[in-house]
Each structure stands twice: as structure tokens, then as C-alpha cells.
């Protein structure tokens, strides 16, 4: 069976920084740091990645930090502004793989509501056979169950799956299932790994 490549999305295909939105709303750098460490944090955001609805998350957070209600609502309404653009070089690799007939998949921790906002604006995803989204499945990496979903839907397992992700725990979980998994640092290193795997 032909080997497939599975991409993570955040910080692999697209840059992602909560600060990219909130630095537009909070001028004081110290206040911005405090806000990102306490109010709209990556840990809290991850609850949406795991499948929790924004309709539950936002009122709870506003009750804790009422002075930041406009900012918390901006997190939901303007989430795409936390994604400044593509990771340099990554999309070119996707296009080369697709042109070579390599089957492509995504496995991403991404909230379902935010995915619904982001996906339509990004034609690069048209090149992928399937995209497994944690918020839709209500299971997030590194839970083994979401890797099993990729295996089922791709019709592949073990070393027939080349996986790249920027998170060490997610790579370890993939390797535990026998995937050919590589920690993403930049597109140049990924290109070398794809060449070594005979995919480029």
C-alpha cells in the first residue's frame, strides 16, 4: 500500500498565536502577557479542541473575568486573526506531494466551530483526502483513539503513515502505534525527512 502523509495544522501548516489577535486589543505588553497567561490561555482554548462548545466556555470565562468580556467575545468572533498565515515552505511541500500522487491527510487539534470558520477560506485543504478534527470527534491528540480514527479512515496503519507534528507528546503517541512520526521544526527539515522516506 502506498504510504500516506499526515500533517498537523497548527504551527505546521499555519502559524497560530493567540497574541496575534490580542496584541491588537491590549496595548500594554505586561497586561497582554497577564491576559494570555490567565484569561484566554492555550490551556483553556484546548477545551474547545477537545469538543467543548463555545456557548459553555464563554459565559464561564466572562463570569470569572467580567472586565475582559469584549476580549473573550473577540476570541470567539475573531479567531481567524489568531492564525497570521501559512508556515513558511509547508504549503509548497503539500503541493509537491499532491502533484506526486502521495495520499494526504490531516490530524489536527482544532475546535469544530473554529474549523467551520477557518476551513472555507483555505483552498490548500482541497488537496487532502480527509481531515480528522479533534473538536468534531470530541477526542484530541495525544489520545490514541484519534489516531485510530485516522487509521480507519485512511485505510492504513503503522509505517504506512508518515506523520509530522510540532508537539512531542503527539509524536510519541503516533510512534507508539508504529507510525513513521517526525517532530516538525521547519519546512526545510521536513523536506529532508520526506526525501529520506522516499515520498519526495
Describe the structure in your own words.
The structure is a single chain. This protein has 200 residues and is of the alpha/beta class. The protein folds into two domains: 4-15 and 86-196, HAD superfamily/HAD-like (Rossmann fold), CATH 3.40.50.1000; 19-82. Helices cover 46% and strands 11% of the residues. Strands 3-2-1-4-5 form a five-stranded parallel beta sheet, sandwiched between helices. The model has no long low-confidence stretch (mean pLDDT 98).
Q: In terms of topology, how is this protein built?
A:
Blueprint: E1 4-7, H1 19-22, H2 29-38, H3 42-49, H4 54-64, H5 69-77, H6 90-99, E2 104-108, H7 112-118, E3 130-133, H8 134-137, H9 144-154, E4 161-165, H10 168-176, E5 180-183, H11 187-196
Parallel strand pairs: 1-2, 1-4, 2-3, 4-5
Helix pairs in contact: 4-5
